[in-house]
Amino acid sequence: MLSFESAERGILCNDAETRPSTWCKGVQPALPLWLASHPHCTPYDPASADEARAILRSALQSLYIEHKAGFYYLATHDDMHADIGPLHRADAENAIKGMYRLKLAPDMNIGGDRGIAPSVRLCGAGHTLQRVLDAARLLAQDWGIGAEVWSCPSYTRLAREGHAAARHNMLHPECPPQRSHVSECLGSSTTPVIAVTGYAQHVAAQIAPFVPARFAALGAAPRRAAAGADFLSAQWIAVTALKSLVDDSVLSASTLEAALHAYALI
Fold first, then answer.
1. In this structure, are residues 211 and 193 in contact, taking their beta carbons and an 8 Å threshold?
2. Is the dihedral of CA 72, 78, 84, 85 positive or negative?
3. For the chain, how far is it from start to end, CA to CA, in angstroms?
4. Is the CB of residue 73 less than 8 Å from the CB of residue 8?
5. SS3 category, 121
6. Contact between 175 and 75 (Cβ < 8 Å)
7. 223: exposed, middle or buried (C-beta count within 10 Å: 0-12, 13-18, 19+)?
8. Which residue stretches of 114-154 are H helix?
9. Which of 16, 74, 150, 228 has the CA that lies 20 to 30 A from 262?
10. Residue 11 forms beta bridges with which residues?
11. What is the residue extent of each domain of the chain?
12. Out of 3.40.50.720, 3.40.50.920, 3.40.50.1000, 3.50.50.60, which CATH number does the structure's domain 2-262 have?
């Protein structure tokens, strides 16, 4: 309704998730899908005040200085406690584009050697970024797995730019190919990627076509309490990462079995 009343122009900050609800983030399930599919909306789910500030500045510049059409949607949180420091200018610019690297995968010791341990890439948005960071610690401490962590304030913007680049390359086969931001960030690495969102799973799954490695998306279930498992817990994220490494024949299935029992997930 607010989108209609504002002629689809402006900045909408929504704190609906701070209110109790059986639905993920306290909003009706149709809203995330509508935001992702609405061509005039650019939705963001910032994980920190610095991310939100950078996005708001970009929105003000785009809408009211450059007079571009459209509107921005920001999910706001009352528990922005993700373990991230102040954003450097380059990180702020990349956050606006949809993702930036928060932490490199640490070198792990395996048999006395360094840097040869299995590794994964973990992506998180909004309040789930803290759980992703916790999962990275579990992987390192419990299983010797290095985890590179990325903050992804807008999976939707990443996916749209990826599709736009793919379309341009198809229509201009003799021109130098365009590369989207998500492709620039992830490159051609075959390291598994786990993308996590506080919205439904399909929001994070939007970037799947542009990930050159094994990919898994995790999101909130409408009634996850009744399902018997919290699919956004740090333990579940860690187990999903281990499963990706098992599927790539990097780890044995016994490691995954041990993790499931250690975290009381079965």
1. yes
2. positive
3. 44
4. no
5. strand
6. no
7. exposed
8. 128-143
9. 150
10. 72
11. 2-262
12. 3.40.50.920
The tens digit of pLDDT for each residue in 177-200 reads 999 999 999 999 999 999 999 888
pTM value > 0.70: yes
Where in the chain does DSSP place strands (E)? 9-14, 41-44, 70-75, 100-103, 109-110, 113-114, 119-124, 146-151, 193-196, 215-218
Could you tell me which of 98, 266, 261, 118 has the C-alpha nearest to residue 195?
A: 98
Pick the closest to residue 123 from 110, 132, 136, 115 (CA basis): 132
Residue of 74 and 113 predicted with greater confidence: 74
Among 122, 93, 101, 266, which residue's Cα sits nearest to residue 191?
122
CA atoms within 13 A on the CB side of 117: 23
Name the token pair of 158: 């990443």
Q: DSSP labels for 34-70?
A: HHHH-TTEEEE--SSHHHHHHHHHHHHIIIIIS---E
